[in-house]
Design brief:
Elements (H helix, E strand, L loop, with lengths): L34 E9 L4 H4 L4 E6 L12 H4 L5 E3 L1 H13 L5 E4 L5 H13 L6 E5 L5 H5 L7 E4 L6 H8 L4 H16 L5 E2 L5 E10 L5 H15 L4 E5 L8 H4 L9 H14 L4 E3 L19
């Protein structure tokens, strides 16, 4: 399916900036229509059913339309780091990761490259590629663009960052984040959730939806609202991953003092206990010291 014409007047993300990325102009995502990748390697730090023992074949795309002030991947989200590649090279990267033993192909921050990714997947499948594709995204997508991925993506791994429009406006300049996250996740569940969920014999997810929430310091009530919404809406049709790995990036405390620290064990325990109390069973939690910069991979063009 060739839908690259969308890039002529780009409306891939909710910001709908309308830039002609095919003419070398950059959109809200900071990217032209040329695919830029900063890392393609086995990644061991995803949920157990994604990474497993062999690792997830993570392809980190440069650029991002959301632009959270606390982004842990700032080296690539602004679009500066990374290497420009062709669609055929992207396809070959899929096969190279498969040869390394990857459980899946994990497309990280892929929204602004949907047309190119679809072309690369078509190319790979024409060569009998078999691994499942994981769509690892911010939650700031439109349902219409997620519909384009029907039949291409096997596992959706979106964030649900904010329930409060005030918070999403303050930290991401996106007051419409909650409404788009709700709509896009609904479409993801329609495609891959519920009774479509499948795991292989090694416990690796082959089809399904895992919604992540990164808990932020001092915003426990918003986190509880997200967990409540997800569970009340989808019950056991999805998995909920509650993350404690928030890592304050240098200088964030100058703009947002409340974000200048990691979350406390008691904050995280309260959120996890709350999820259990309301009935969440299909879930993942993080244990130990995860809020470390060492958990942020090097964006050094490995595997690109």
């Amino acid at each position: 399916m060739d839908i690259r014409h969308i890039l002529n007047n780009c409306i891939l993300c909710p910001r709908k900036c309308g830039v002609d990325r095919t003419s070398g102009h950059t959109g809200a995502c900071h990217m032209t229509d040329t695919v830029r990748v900063s890392r393609a390697a086995l990644h061991m730090w995803e949920e157990p059913c994604i990474s497993g023992e062999n690792g997830s074949g993570a392809v980190f795309f440069s650029g991002c339309a959301l632009g959270c002030c606390f982004c842990q991947n700032k080296a690539i989200s602004g679009g500066k780091a990374g290497k420009d590649i062709s669609i055929s090279r992207l396809c070959n990267i899929f096969f190279e990761l498969q040869d390394k033993g990857a459980n899946n192909i994990n497309l990280v921050t892929p929204d602004h490259y949907i047309p190119q990714i679809i072309s690369a997947i078509d190319m790979a499948r024409s060569r009998n590629f078999k691994l499942p594709f994981v769509y690892n995204c911010s939650g700031y997508e439109t349902a219409e663009m997620i519909q384009l991925l029907d039949g291409y993506i096997d596992v959706y791994l979106p964030d649900f960052k904010f329930m409060s429009p005030d918070l999403s406006s303050k930290y991401s300049n996106a007051p419409d984040y909650p409404e788009h996250a709700k709509a896009s996740i609904s479409e993801m569940v329609r495609q891959c959730g519920g009774d479509q969920t499948r795991f292989d014999d090694d416990g690796i997810m082959q089809r399904g939806v895992i919604v992540r929430h990164l808990q932020l310091p001092d915003h426990l009530d918003d986190s509880k609202s997200i967990i409540t919404y997800l569970y009340n809406t989808y019950k056991d049709s999805i998995y909920i991953s509650i993350m404690n790995q928030y890592t304050p990036m240098p200088g964030i405390e100058n703009r947002f003092p409340e974000l200048g620290r990691t979350i406390t064990p008691s904050e995280y325990d309260e959120l996890v206990d709350y999820a259990i109390d309301i009935g969440v069973e299909n879930g993942f939690i993080q244990e130990g010291e995860t809020a470390k910069e060492s958990f942020i991979p090097a964006f050094d063009n490995e595997g690109v």
